[in-house]
Amino acid sequence: MRPPRALRLLDGYVRRSFLQWMGGRSFLLTLVANQAVTPLIGLAVWTTALPGQRGIGAYYLALLVVRLLTVSYENHTFSNGIYAGALADGLLRPHPVVLAPLGENLAMRLWHLILGLPLLVGVGLFVAPDFRAADVAAALPALLLAALLRFLFTYLLALSAFWTERAHGLVGFGDTLIFLLGGEAAPVALLPGPLQPLGAALPFRAMLGFPAEVAAGQLDGAGVLVGYGWQIVWIGIFAAAAALAWRAGVRRYTAVGG
Questions:
Q1: DSSP 71
Q2: Model confidence pLDDT, tens digit, residues 82-128
Q3: Residues 93, 34: contact at Cβ < 8 Å?
Q4: Predicted structure pTM score
Q5: Do 61 and 123 meet the contact criterion of CB atoms below 8 Å apart?
Q6: What CA–CA distances, in Å, run from 139 to 42, 58, 81, 92?
Q7: How confident is the model at residue 81 (pLDDT cuts 50, 70, 90)?
Q8: Distance CA 251, CA 163 (A)
Q9: Can you say whether the dihedral through the CA atoms of 36, 155, 231, 143 is positive or negative?
Q10: CA distance between the termini of the chain
Q11: 50, 77, 199, 240: which could join 188 in a potential S-S bond, CB 3.0 to 4.6 Å?
Q12: Coil, strand, or helix at residue 242?
């Protein structure tokens, strides 16, 4: 049985983008290094501040994996296409425009994983994490949901390019919120008391820290289920918001003559 047409088209976009980026591996290495900086700093800070604390090393190693597999650069790939007028070509294709940026997103994540593997192995040897198979298995659905949520969040902010030339700044602000409240600057469990429930409910933990917490064995069964629930809720919210923003943006784009 053949896969749906949309999946076949998405696969084609992933393959094309993956091959296109083969010539830019040196640049991709700088992107991987940039993604690794803050988790490694967090690892150094919190292992020093909390010596002997169980799970800190495993958490930040898992966080590094999550970060590499959820990277999103739609402010560069998609917003720049709007600014350059290239979106007109996409609108003429007989399939949803989102398939192209999603395919490039998946290809970029695959390259990040491939080029980041030596770093992951080195950090793993240094921290000697005690991952359990059951926790890692429970973290895989959380990772997939986080990857989808991060794409929707960045894509939604990137759609601001229809109305403003500051899409890069908006995405950068979103990344700052993910860093502060997503479990990277500090695990959500270590935030000040009043901020913990807020941090747990906001979408930023669902994009980054939650899968790492599950993989590191820091949550019980109820905590895992609640985290899944928040991920699904925020995916629905951002998917609906992105669909509405896309329709409004395209109407403006075509009215202006883009």
A1: -
A2: 888 888 788 878 888 999 999 999 999 999 999 999 999 999 999 98
A3: no
A4: 0.93
A5: yes
A6: 21, 13, 34, 39
A7: confident
A8: 11
A9: negative
A10: 40
A11: 199
A12: helix
